[in-house]
Amino acid sequence: MDEGTRRRALIADGCYLVGGAALVASAFLHWIARGAGSGLRGHALFDALVALGKHVPALSVGRLTILWYLVPALGAASWITFGVVGARARASKGVALAAFVGVIVAAVAFVHLAGTARLGWGPKVALAGGIVMFAGAWIPEPWLGSRSGSRSPMPTRKSRYGDSLRDSL
């Protein structure tokens, strides 16, 4: 791995980790900035918003609560998958995709419940974290590739028969 590729890989790994940290941090930030529900989190927040007559079609209070708790849980899961298999493994990409979709659905639900004027830092940080984590897991594939002309993702180890493994496949 040359120096430029190593640097880009470190940036991508950092993006994945920072995105996961932002998802976890969003649980401790206010999702509603002012008005009803601004001091609440989790189930109490959704109970207060629904008690005011707000609702999201096809999402009950329980489903909204699970969706809200899923955002920081996927951030923590991203750290675990990063530590076990790395940022660009299939499992890490799956966690990044699930977090990206979950954050978008949660942010849209909060915009529908509270409006954009009342949104706090929670959904904004979660959305930024989901985007950064998704970028760290998915975008670097061609960006991190070797520029030496080899297009095969497989290593060129020598087999016991003398030819390289890439040539034998």
Give a verbal description of the structure:
- The protein has 169 residues and is mainly alpha-helical.
- It has one domain (3-145).
- The chain is 64% helix and 0% strand.
- It has 7 helices and no strands.
- It has helices at residues 3-26, 43-51, 61-85, 90-114, 121-138, 140-143, 165-168.
- α1 (3-26) packs antiparallel against α3, α2 (43-51) packs antiparallel against α3 (61-85) and α3 (61-85) packs antiparallel against α4 (90-114).
Query: Could you give the distance between the termini?
Result: 23 Å
Radius of gyration: 21 Å
Stretches where pLDDT falls below 50 for ≥5 residues? 146-155
Average of the residue pLDDT scores: 80
| Strand content bin | under 5%
Task: Compile the SSE list and pairings.
Blueprint: H1 3-26, H2 43-51, H3 61-85, H4 90-114, H5 121-138, H6 140-143, H7 165-168
Helix pairs in contact: 1-3, 1-5, 2-3, 3-4, 4-5
In a few lines, what is going on in this structure?
This protein has helices at 3-26, 43-51, 61-85, 90-114, 121-138, 140-143, 165-168. It is mostly helical.
Feature tags:
7 helices, 169 residues, mainly alpha
